[in-house]
Amino acid sequence: MKPEKGAGKQVEIYRGMSGKERLKIAFEMWDIAFAQVKASEKSLNPNLNEKEIERRARQRMTDGAIRGS
User: Distance (Å, rounded) from C-alpha 9 to C-alpha 61?
Assistant: First the structure.
């Protein structure tokens, strides 16, 4: 299947879902992306503690909109 056809099929599937189902998928995708960004921060900064890794990951995921602890 060509990517364009696959993307169209995916949109079709999403349109058949309720808003609650789509929102659940969005949160799951955010969690996956956040885990990947945290892993990247750990790799780049192995000496940082978990709290600082999470702070940096949140900052990256929100383009700096979230700065606090």
Answer: 28
